[in-house]
Specification:
Layout lengths: L3 E5 L3 H12 L19 E6 L2 E6 L12 E9 L2 E9 L2 H29 L13 H24 L1 H14 L2 E4 L7
Antiparallel strand pairs: 1-5, 1-6, 2-3, 3-4, 4-5
Helix pairs in contact: 2-3
Length: 184
C-alpha cells in the first residue's frame, strides 16, 4: 500500500503523547519485544521516538499472520503534525514469504531446465522419468496456494485496517490527505 498521510491540528509532541498514553508501558520496549494484546484491546500500539506502529488487536481470525501493521512516523507540520504511514506485513512474515516464493521460483526453474534439457536429449538437473507430470504440476499449485493464502489473509484483515485509520483520525483529530494532495 502506498504511503497514506494524515494532517492533525495537534502538534507532533501532542500526537505522540496521546499515543503513548494509550499504549501504556508497552510502548517503551523494543520493536521485537512484543507481548500479545488482550482479546478486547481495539488496537496495539508501539511508540518509539517519532515512529509509531499500530496493529488491529481484535476481530477477525486471531492467528492471522498476514494482518498488516500500520507503520509510520509523526513529523512537524506548519499547521500541526503530519502523520505519514503505510500498511505493511510484519518483517518476519515478509521474510517467510520471500523464502517461500523464492524456493518455489527455484523449483520451477529447476523443473523447467530439466524438462527442456530432457526434451532436446541432453538431460541435466532433476532425473525426471515419464511419470514426472504430477510432480511438475505440484509446484505451480503450491505457488498458487501461497498467493491465495496471503491475499485472503490480507483481505480478512481489511476491516481491521479501516478501524485503525478511524482510530488515528479520532484519537489525533486528524484528517486523511487525499493521495493527489501533496501538502508539505
Amino acid at each position: 500500500m502506498p504511503t497514506v498521510r494524515f494532517a492533525s491540528d495537534l502538534s507532533k509532541s501532542e500526537c505522540l503523547e496521546r499515543l503513548r498514553k494509550i499504549a501504556g508501558p508497552r510502548s517503551d520496549r523494543g520493536w521485537f519485544d512484543m507481548s500479545f494484546p488482550a482479546q478486547n484491546d481495539p488496537v496495539f500500539i508501539w511508540v518509539r521516538g517519532d515512529r509509531i506502529k499500530i496493529a488491529r488487536a481484535s476481530g477477525g481470525p486471531q492467528q492471522n499472520s498476514f494482518r498488516r501493521l500500520f507503520d509510520g512516523k509523526v513529523v512537524e507540520h506548519y499547521r500541526g503534525a503530519l502523520i505519514e504511514v503505510r500498511f505493511r506485513l510484519p518483517r518476519f512474515v515478509a521474510l517467510f514469504m520471500a523464502v517461500w516464493f523464492g524456493a518455489y521460483l527455484y523449483a520451477i526453474g529447476l523443473i523447467t531446465v530439466s524438462v527442456a534439457s530432457r526434451a532436446i536429449g541432453h538431460p541435466i538437473g532433476l532425473p525426471l522419468n515419464d511419470n514426472a507430470g504430477p510432480m511438475v504440476l505440484l509446484v505451480p499449485v503450491l505457488m498458487l496456494f501461497g498467493v491465495v493464502l496471503v491475499r485472503s489473509g490480507i483481505h480478512m484483515a481489511r476491516a481491521g485496517e479501516e478501524e485503525v485509520v478511524h482510530f488515528i483520525t479520532s484519537t489525533l483529530a486528524a484528517s486523511m490527505i487525499p493521495s493527489g494532495d501533496q501538502r508539505s
